[in-house]
Design a protein that fits this description.
This protein is an alpha/beta fold and about 210 residues long. It contains 7 helices and 7 strands. α1 packs across α7 and α5 crosses α6.
Length: about 210
């Protein structure tokens, strides 16, 4: 099993990179564990207080469960991945069944900040993008998908996203084996990454 960690700031194009990797490989060969599925459950927190929770710091993630699930996949077991609602800020009752695959991608803004998780990765990738481009994508996404107004997004960016990016996400870039500038638009870097993955898989097949 090849475990790939893909990190980067909010709106940097991580999902685009992941989707292009999946599209380049045979169907059913890749499993994805989004960091966002492992937010700690805030169901016990009063609704009016949930909006104050900082979801952009490592303490918001249940790393132990993510590490456990990744370990079980590596051992050949199937897992039930949690799901999380951005609208209610709570973990949902529904889970997603994830089977072991030749390639497992762990994706999220903070996945290179946890040393235990980082040590489990065979390849560590940081998707980089201009701050202005990231902000534009975040405004578009949050207004459409998460019911926020542009001003709400801008305020959150200034108060939370930018400080947390500088404190946690940007420094984690130093752990990356590959930095992908220009996000999902960098076809050369994505091509190099997919070629490497295919080479590793081909080598494994030959050894078998």
């Amino acid at each position: 099993m090849l475990i790939i960690g893909i990190a980067g700031g909010t709106g940097s194009g991580k999902t685009t990179v992941v989707n292009k990797i999946i599209a380049s490989l045979p169907q059913g060969e890749v499993a994805v564990l989004p960091q966002d599925s492992y937010y700690k459950d805030s169901g016990h927190v009063p609704v009016e207080e949930r909006c104050k929770i900082n979801f952009d710091e490592p303490a918001a993630i249940e790393w132990s469960l993510l590490v456990e699930h990744l370990s079980r996949l590596k051992q050949g077991a199937t897992i039930e991945m949690p799901t999380y609602s951005y609208l209610t800020c709570t973990r949902q009752e529904e889970t997603v069944t994830v089977h072991p695959r030749d390639v497992v991608i762990v994706e999220g803004i903070l996945v290179l900040t946890d040393p235990t998780l980082r040590d489990m990765m065979d390849v560590k990738v940081f998707v980089d993008a201009d701050p202005d481009d990231r902000l534009i994508r975040v405004i578009s996404r949050d207004c459409i998908e998460r019911g926020r107004t542009p001003q709400m997004v801008i305020d959150r960016y200034q108060d939370v996203l930018k400080p947390m990016h500088c404190q946690y996400i940007e420094p984690s870039k130093r752990f990356a084996d590959l930095i992908v500038p220009q996000g999902g638009n960098n076809t050369v870097a994505i091509g190099l990454l997919t070629d490497y993955i295919e080479g590793r898989l081909h080598k494994k097949t030959n050894l078998c």
